[in-house]
Amino acid sequence: MSQNEQFDGEYQEVEPGHGTPQNTGGPRGPKLWQTIIVALVAGIIGGGAVVGGYAYHENQSKPAPKQTQKVKKAEAKTKVSHLNVKVSSDASDAFNKIKNAVVSVEAYAKEDPNSSIAGMYGDSGKETESEAEQTSEGSGVIYKKTGNTAFVVTNNHVISGADRVEILMNDGHKLSASVVGHDSVSDLAVLKIDAKYVTQVAEFGNSDKITVGETALAIGSPLGSDYATSLTQGIVSAKKRTIDVTNSAGVATGQATVIQTDAAINPGNSGGPLVNVAGQVIGINSMKLSSAGSSGTSVEGMGFAIPSNEVVEIVNQLATNGKVSRPALGISLLDLDYISSSDRKKTLKLPENVTSGIVVMKVNDDSPLKAAGISRYDVITGLGDKQVKDIVSLREALYAHKIGETVKIKYYHNGQEKTANVKLSLEANDANTSTASNER
Prior knowledge:
Layout: H1 32-47, H2 52-60, H3 73-76, H4 90-98, E1 102-110, H5 117-120, E2 133-146, E3 149-155, H6 156-159, E4 164-168, E5 174-183, E6 188-194, E7 215-220, E8 230-246, E9 252-261, E10 273-275, E11 281-288, E12 291-292, E13 297-298, E14 303-307, H7 308-321, E15 327-328, E16 331-335, H8 341-346, E17 358-363, E18 379-383, E19 386-387, H9 391-399, E20 406-413, E21 416-423, E22 426-427, H10 431-434
């Protein structure tokens, strides 16, 4: 077999011929030349020479030698060196600058008594409070301290649906936390705690200035508070990776632009900081890719963090208003993909080259599109400087703007391409920012 040939999982038997010893060990027995080769290889490995094969087999048959000499206890003892080694690295220095600002976040939600067997039979009152609670754990980072109050940022999915939230500090103190605000679109939440035991506050770095290949440190509580303030090290694998985001029901809710890193991120790291070598927060760890494709191929070293510049913008709104204000169009809509080719031609009167967009099915009375003349069965193909292909891309284009801004909308009306300048005066409610609704 040549070096370029690959073993296909099955040896092919050699037909007897000139210069090839016959197989004398039966139909399935080993060939003599194969036995010789195995012996030679064993000899080379065992003794460094061909004759080592004999020594190897001979030694295998001998019993282990008995102890022939007693060793004095003093001669067998060892000890730990008294030499003090001072280890300093960028990673350890960065960790020391932020470690006391990283916390574990414990969220508690009371279990529905009717969902348990005891509840079905009217025995739910016998359960204790602890038995009637379910908990989820994540991480967070203290980013601001004002007087007796400190603010913690974490992921929205860590505290979503919780009736009670507690913070476990790095020094072991456990504090009650109140939710200041949370946002399902960005997956961020802000908590408020007593600042009595806060000794360190994290600093946000500029995520626009990071470079691919630079050191990235993830700090948090993988698998829960038993492993609190764990540090893992990797690099920035990509500065701006666009990934699809789904809600708990598996429905696509949009896309997110995130930092990709190969620093180990595990369940429980959610909400913890991704840190640079200066100890600055450059992202909030949010998710990891553990499998890909329909085959469920295992994936390693692909974690994602919300960039710090976006985090700062969101948490400032949450701390001030308790929510993030985003514009809405006030329409019911449908992806063009769901419209048959005959309806595209007869009802929408679209040119054949228009193959993507969203169809306006209804314009609400308070919609800013109403004054612009956009009506039912119009097809929106662009918003601002972004192309609109479907509901997800429309949402991304819309949320890139703020309430009060005027944007240009490109659409088709009765087969004719038109543009309209629309002032975004309507605010999206929580219902159509947290799910892939057919209303925007």
